[in-house]
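ping. complex inputs:
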Amino acid sequence: MATQHSRAAARLMISPAVVLLLGWMIIPLAMTIYFSFLNYNLLHPGPHNFIGFRNYYYFLTDPSFTTALWNTIVLVLGVLLITTVGGVLLALLLDQPMWGQGIVRVLVIAPFFVMPTVSALVWKNMFMNPVNGLFAYFAHSLGLQPFDFLSQAPLFSIILIVAWQWLPFATLILLTALQSLDSEQMEAAEMDGASAISRFLFITIPHLTRSITVVILIQTIFLLSVFAEILVTTNGGPGTASTNLTYLVYGQSLLQYDVGGGSAGGIVAVILANIVAIFLMRMIGKNLEG
Amino acid sequence: MARNVTPARKATVTVLAWGIGFLIFFPILWTVLTSFKSEGDAVAIPPVFLNFHWTLENYAIVNQRSDYLLHFWNSIVISFGSTFLGLVIAIPAAWAMAFVPGRRTKDVLMWMLSTKMMPSVGVLIPIYLLFRNTGLLDTRIGLVIVLTLIDLPIIVWMLYTYFKEIPGEILEAARMDGATLRSEILYVLTPMAVPGIASTLLLNVILAWNEAFWTLNLTAANAAPLTAFIASYSSPEGLFYAKLSAASTMAIAPILILGWFSQKQLVRGLTFGAVK
Amino acid sequence: MTSTLRALFGACAVAALATVATAETTITVATVNNGDMIRMQGLMSDFYAKHPDIKVNWVTLEENVLRQKVTTDIATKGGQYDVMTIGTYEVPIWGKQGWLESLNDLPASWDANDILPAIRGGLTVDGKLYAAPFYGESSMVMYRTDLMKKAGLTMPDKPTWADIEKAADAMTDKAAGVYGICLRGKAGWGENMAFLTAMSNSFGASWFDMKWQPQFNGDAWKKTINTYVDLMKKDGPPGASNNGFNENLALFQQGKCGMWIDATVAASFVTGKDSTVANDVGFALAPDNGLGKRSNWLWAWSLAIPAGTKHSDAAKTFIDWATSKDYLALVASKEGWANVPPGTRTSLYENPEYAKVPFAKMTLDSINSADPTHPTVNPVPYVGVQFVAIPEFQGIANDVGQQFSAALAGTETVDEALSKSQDLTVRAMTKAGYIK
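pong. complex structure:
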C-alpha cells in the first residue's frame, strides 16, 4: 500500500545515510586510486610523477603477496571454524538447565568487551611468552620444553587470540537462536524415539542455519581486516608467516611510507574484499530471504 | 514446559559450564590479578594466584604518568557521540527500508555493509590529508565523524532487521486513525523499537570503544582516547607486566561493567534478525 | 531586557577569561615511553616553576607507534606536534628536506660545544643543528660477573666474538633457566636490524657497495648471520625471535641472561632498583673480529621542532630546559647520578661524581668508538652505523629483519633468509631508482 508520497518520503529518509556512506566510500577511494598511479613516497617531497601501473606491478609480484593472500584466507576460515563449531557446542551446553547460568554467561561474554590491542598484549606477554608466560610454566611443570607459540606457530597463535575474542559473539547469537527453538517439536521428536544425535542434526542444526550465516557474515567483515593483533604480537613474522593483506598494505604505506605502493595495495585489497562480499551477500541473501 | 532433568545431569552440566566459562574468562581475571601485584610477583615462578602481597602501586604509577580521566572522557564522548549520531542518521533510513521496501532496498543494504570491508590502513593517508585541511586532526568531533561512518552500516542493518519484525498491520491501523508520518514514528514505532535501538546502541558503543586504528592515528594529545593510553604502556623498558595489567584493567573496566549490566539487552540485539 | 544584557556581559566575561587563558602557550610534545622520558614527565614541576606561561601536553607512545605518527604528521605537515622525539636516523633525512627548524639559535647557556662530537655530528646537516640530544647511546656487552666467576672466566675489556662465544657456552645452564647470551631477535629496523647491521660491520659486511648494490649474497653477511643464529640456538633463550630491547631487558633483570649486547642506556636499568642482579653486572666494549670495526652502534633520542609550528619559541624554551646541563643536575639531585640521561655532554663525563657510576667510562668509550661517517670496513656510499640514512631504509630493513627473525626462529635456513633478503632489497632499491 506504499503510495507515491510515502515512497518519496522513504527516499528522503534513506538519503542521508546513503549520501554519507557514498562520500565516505568515494572520496578516499578516489584519492587512493589517484595516489596508486603516482610515485609518491611521503619521505620524498616534491612533485609526484605519474608512473602508470608500476605500483600495482610491484605489489602483485611481491613474493609476500601470495603468502599474505593465503594467510588472510587461513586466518578468516580458521577463526570462523573455531568460533562457529565452538559457539554451537557452547551454546548447546549453556542452553541446558544448570545453576548460575547468568553468571556463566557473564564469564563467557567478557572477552568480547576487551580491546583487541589489550587482548593481544595480554596473550602475548602473560600466556604465550616462552619464558615468563603461563603456558611455559605449565609445560615446565609437566616436564616439557615450553612451546614458542609466536615464532613456531605464529598464524595459529593469532587465530587463537582472535577466536577467543569472537567466540562470545558467536555463542551468544547461537544461544539466543537455540532458546527460540520450539521445545514442543523437540519433545515430539523425542517421543518418536529420535536419538539425541539425529535430533541435533535434523532439528537443531537447520534451526541454527540462519544464525550461523549471520555469524559468518558479521565476523568475516571484521576478520578480513584483522590488524592490531598482528601488529602487537608478531609484526607479521617471522618472515611473512603471519602477514595478512591488511598488514601487508600497512607495511607499504606506514612502515615504508610508500603512499603510491600502499594505495595500489589498498585498491587490490578493496577489490578482493568486494569479491568476498559479493559471494557472502549471495549466500546471506538466500538464507535471509525467508 | 521445563523438561525433567535429573539432579546429577544438572550438576554435571553446571560443573562443565562453569569450568569452560572460567577458562574463557581466565585471561581477563589474570590481568586484573596481575595489576595488583608488584612487578616481581607478576613474573614469579611458580606463578602466584592469590597469595601475593596486594598493592595499588601500579595504579598509582599509571595515574601519575597519564591523564586517565582525559582519555576516559574522550573514549566516552567518541563512542557515545558516534553511536548517537549514527542512530540519528540510521533510524529513518532503516525505517524506510523496512516499511517501504523498494526493488533495490536489499542491494543498498548489502552495498552499505560492503563499505565496511575497505581496509582502513590503505586510506589513512588520504583521510589524514583531508583531516589536516579541515582542521579535524586531534579533535573529538573528527573521530566522532569517522567512527559514525564506519559503524553506520552495522547500525542500519541491525535496526532494519528489528524494524522488519514489527508487524506492518499496526502501522496500517495507526494510519487509518489518521496518524501522520511523524506521529506514526513517534508514538507507534518508537516504543516498539526501543529494545532494538537500545541493543544497537550498546553494541556500537562497544565497537567504537575498542576501535584502535583511527582513534590512534588521528589523535595526538587532546582527543586521544583509551586506545592511545594503552599504547604508551605496551613494551616500555624493563619489567612491565604489572603496570601493563593495571593500564589494561583501567581501559577495559568501564566497557566491561557497562556490558555486564546491560548484557540482556545486548544479547537480544546481537541476533541481527537471525532469530525469528 | 536586563537578562539579555546580563547574558551578554556574562558571555563577554567568559570570552575575556578565555583570552587570558590563551596567553598561556600550550605545546604538544611527542615522545617515546622510555624510562628517561617518563622520568622527565615526573620532573615537570621544575619546568613549570621556571616557565609558568608554558603548558606541556605529553603524547607518550611506544616507539613504533610514535615513529609512525610523527612521520605521517611531519610529512603531511599535519602540525599536531610542536616538539618531536626522533633519532639520529630521521634527523639527517628530515633536516635535508627542510622539515625541521634549526636549533642554532638556542641560548649560549645551552652550550652546543659541550655536546659529544660524535652525537652532534649525527644531528647536524650543512652546519645546522636540527635536534637537541636528550640521551645518547652506543651498544656494549653487559655480563654477569658472578656467572663468569663461577665459570672460571674473565671478560676482557675489548672482547672478540670468539671470547663472547666461549663465555656464552660456559654460562649457559638451561636447567636453571640461565641462558648464556640474550640478543635481539624481534624483526624491525630499530630492533634486530640495529644489532645485526652493527654486528655485520665487525665481520666486514655492509648493506651496499659504492654502486648501491645490496651485499647480502656475500660471505661477510653469511658469516655474520651464521654466527648469530648458531650462538643463539646454543645459548640463547627460547622465543628469542620475539625479543627486542625491552623483552631482553626484562630477562636480564630477572637474572636469566649471562650476557646481553645492547644499548648502553640499559646499564642504568640492569644496575637499578628493578633488577635482581644489580650488583653483579660488568661491562665491556662490543665485540670485534680484528678487522678494525667493532659491533657497536650510535644513536641519540633527540628533541626537534617541526618547521612551521606556531609555538616555536615555547618549543625552544622547552628543549633548552630538557637538554640542558641544569636538567642533568636536576635528575642527579632527585634520583642520583646513575639515572641521569647519558651520552650527550662532555661536561657530564668530566664530572668526578659521574665518573663513580660503574658504566660511565664504558658508555663514553663505546660512543667515541662509533663512526657514522665511516661505519664499515669497506667504503660505502651512505652514513649511519646501524642504519643507512636513506628514506627507503626503514621499509627494506623491516622486511630484511623479518627474514633474519625467521632464520633465528628456524622457520627458514640462513641461506634462504639471505637470498630472500638480497632479492627484496634489489627489488626495493630498483623501484626507488638507486639501481638503474
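Chain C has two domains: 2-136+299-355, 139-297+386-432.
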